[in-house]
Write a sequence for this structure.
């Protein structure tokens, strides 16, 4: 479809330069709308206070059959679903599991980076976006030796944990958090909400004096009210983050450090507790983003080094 220059929905609707991806095609192939069915309750609001939508599990969907004329025969559609299930099973059944599986990300395009085995047995990394769409020039391979990366990452983390005790790691995390002055940000948001409310009052007076039509007032009022609600939400989130900063994380951090150092060969599980993601740059620079998932607050400490361990 990309080779034949068939436009995507975003190109047609919004004139955005986008391209067809595997997941888009899979969603089309699984969509029962094409066999004449209507699917309801696929998404719902998080709460009456939060207008954002979340995806519902498939067992909660309401499928109403034969609501419109199908463009695909059901027999053909059912065959495709069986093919998708077989393909999904085969793809998920990995022959090889690597220590950093699922943690490698392309810095440039933010797609996952996979690991492939060459004929000589060596392990190479490749950006999945490049692998799937190499002819489109959307990204580069980002390829270099996986074993070399894994060794460097383990060496770096061991040195970090051996040279810095858990209390200093905790202090580094706290310093990373306190670079944000929560009180200043909260005061700024309070001032912005106050200004919005003052503007709403002025608009109301202008409406009473005939300077604003009812229609114009309602439109502007809704816009400003939404802005105020968004800023109030940000204020609440900042307040929660500032309160989380006061919590003591030393025991959790000490536990993670000791568990990692006690292992002769770290497991995938412990690596995912320690690391949020590893971003690979085109020039071979590597950024490690740490996180301690057992904590309520999500923290990251970026560490940068080059392929030659500079």
């Amino acid at each position: 479809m990309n080779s034949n220059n068939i436009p995507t929905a975003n190109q047609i609707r919004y004139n955005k330069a986008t391209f067809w991806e595997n997941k888009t095609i899979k969603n089309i192939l699984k969509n029962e709308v094409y066999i004449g069915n209507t699917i309801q309750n696929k998404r719902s609001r998080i709460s009456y206070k939060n207008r954002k939508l979340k995806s519902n599990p498939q067992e909660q969907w309401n499928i109403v059959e034969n609501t419109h004329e199908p463009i695909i025969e059901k027999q053909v559609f059912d065959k495709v679903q069986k093919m998708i299930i077989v393909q999904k099973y085969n793809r998920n059944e990995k022959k090889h599991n690597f220590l950093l599986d699922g943690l490698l990300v392309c810095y440039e395009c933010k797609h996952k980076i996979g690991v492939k085995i060459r004929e000589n047995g060596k392990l190479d990394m490749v950006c999945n976006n490049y692998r799937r769409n190499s002819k489109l020039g959307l990204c580069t391979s980002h390829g270099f030796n996986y074993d070399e990366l894994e060794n460097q990452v383990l060496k770096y983390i061991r040195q970090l944990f051996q040279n810095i005790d858990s209390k200093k790691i905790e202090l580094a995390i706290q310093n990373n958090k306190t670079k944000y002055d929560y009180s200043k940000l909260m005061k700024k948001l309070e001032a912005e909400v106050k200004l919005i409310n003052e503007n709403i009052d002025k608009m109301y007076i202008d409406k009473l004096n005939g300077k604003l039509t009812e229609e114009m007032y309602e439109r502007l009022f809704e816009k400003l009210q939404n802005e105020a609600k968004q800023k109030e939400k940000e204020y609440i989130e900042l307040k929660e983050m500032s309160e989380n900063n006061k919590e003591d994380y030393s025991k959790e951090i000490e536990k993670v450090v000791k568990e990692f150092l006690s292992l002769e060969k770290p497991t995938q599980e412990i690596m995912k507790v320690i690391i949020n993601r590893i971003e690979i740059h085109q020039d071979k620079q590597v950024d490690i983003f740490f996180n301690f998932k057992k904590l309520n607050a999500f923290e990251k400490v970026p560490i940068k080094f080059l392929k030659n361990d500079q």
Remarks:
- The chain has a mean pLDDT of 76.
